[in-house]
């Protein structure tokens, strides 16, 4: 039997604001024979500046909660400027809206910091091979959000404003920012959200975004 060829080295950047966790992670990654942690950053802005002047890595590990621009905004910008660069969320957050927003922004995977380090390494290899690694808890959540449900087309006649709000939610925007971008009051955003929930038969922002994506409404 022909042996498998050796795995090529995967170049990784880490974007993490915790100095202690960033140092520990980069040291562990550098101990892996098939992974090279080329650079690490504490902010999205530093990572984007480096990306503008250096060859892109194969994989970028991104925390969600960063000073300045958050991880979702970083993923969105990286996906737009370097679509071949795979981004993996590595965070403590299991919030449904955060998961949906990260996936909508273009994240290739979503892992948790309390996962075994071997799972993080496997996730890096998986995404480098074209896969989409998800922590067990996140995979269950995604399956639940996108579970096929009987369509109710007559209830899904969303207005143009409601679709705009759903798109902004999918981009990770909060209600205050949505109100500002649309030139309406936050209470008006709440009014539209109630209508969206009623039409889509959901009771949360994450549920609304997930069902809208599943049914091709956004």
Overall CATH architecture of the largest domain: 3-Layer(aba) Sandwich
The parts where pLDDT drops under 50 for at least 5 residues are none
Number of domains: 2
Rg (C-alpha, Å): 19 Å
Helix share, percent:
40-55%
Q: Which CATH first-tier class of the largest domain would you pick?
A: Alpha Beta
Q: What is the H level of CATH, i.e. the homologous superfamily of the largest domain?
A: Response regulator
As for the CATH topology of the largest domain, it is Rossmann fold
- What's the story with the biggest beta sheet? 5 strands, parallel
How many alpha or pi helices? 10
Strand-pairing-aware structural class: alpha/beta
What is the overall silhouette?
Answer: elongated
Strand order of the largest sheet: 2-1-3-4-5
User: How many strand units?
Assistant: 5
Reading the helices and strands in chain order gives EHEHEHEHEHHHHHH
Distance between the termini: 49 Å
Average pLDDT reading: 87
Proportion in β-strands = 5-15%
Pfam family, one: Response_reg
Organism: Sulfuriroseicoccus oceanibius
Keywords: DNA-binding, Phosphoprotein
Protein name: Response regulator transcription factor
